[in-house]
Amino acid sequence: MPRGRYSLHDPHDHTPLGEEHFHCAPGPSGWRYVSQVISPSGDHAGSVDLTLDDLGRPIRLELHAASWQVRGAAIDGVTWVRTDPTGTHATEGNVRAHAFTGTSPAFLIATARLLRLTPDSSATRVRLVAFTDPVLAPRTLDQSWALMKREAHATDNGPLMVEEYQVTALDTGEQHAVHISGDVVLAAPGIELEDLDSPPSVFT
What region does 177 belong to: left with phi over 0, alpha with psi -120 to 50, or beta? Predict the structure, then answer.
């Protein structure tokens, strides 16, 4: 069960956005990721609880940020309920999309698990619902993912398999690289892995 800490920053101007303290693990039904988000001032800023089934589909999502809350799952595409800070208003949404995304590194792992690309695969299009901080506003977007290479890197604990993905935003054409090992993001725009207390889990 990897535990660790990501630092988060704005990918454009590198403004610090805080830290995400996480633990994650494969299980009999798939994979689960749980984290607490800490603001740059050290205050609690939110949380992420994401469970995938063995095909990489989101069977349970719970997000908290700035007193807003989202609960969602893969039902008729993806379905969610977003609740305001007072708890008096809840709005439900549904989109014919494949999965969810957001600022958490968990969503990069989830998308990679869902697509299961190989270096021989062609670029694959995926439709996602993003929940944007700080009020978890939903936005539907389309991306293209391609696995560029898979390489083994020597470490003190044996070889570490690292996958490099090229992710393209289909609305703007902007491209960026995402480096993943098992169920841990090593590097991505706005994300740096700062601490990891055990090797990433290996998916079967």
Answer: beta
pTM attached to this predicted model: 0.95
Non-local (6+) Cβ contacts of 103 within 8 A are: 8, 17, 132, 133, 190
Tell me the per-residue pLDDT of 79-95, one tens digit each, with 9 for 90 and over.
999 999 888 889 999 99
Q: List all residues 6 or more positions away from 196 whose beta carbon is below 8 Å from its beta carbon.
A: 2, 3, 4, 184
Going from N- to C-terminal start, the domains of the chain cover 3-196
Which residue has tokens 């989101």? 58
Strand partners, 115: none
**Beta-carbon neighbour count of residue 103 at 10 Å?**
22
Model confidence over 190-204: pLDDT tens digits? 999 999 998 899 876
Is the pLDDT assigned to residue 69 strictly greater than 70? yes
pLDDT for 160: 85
Which two three-digit tokens encode residue 92? Answer: 């439900």
CA–CA distances in Å: residue 2 to residues 5, 21, 91, 132: 10, 11, 34, 26
Question: Which amino acid makes up residue 32?
Answer: R
Per the CB < 8 A criterion, the answer to whether 130 and 139 are in contact is yes
- Evaluate the omega torsion of the peptide bond into residue 134 and state whether it is cis, within 30 degrees of 0: yes
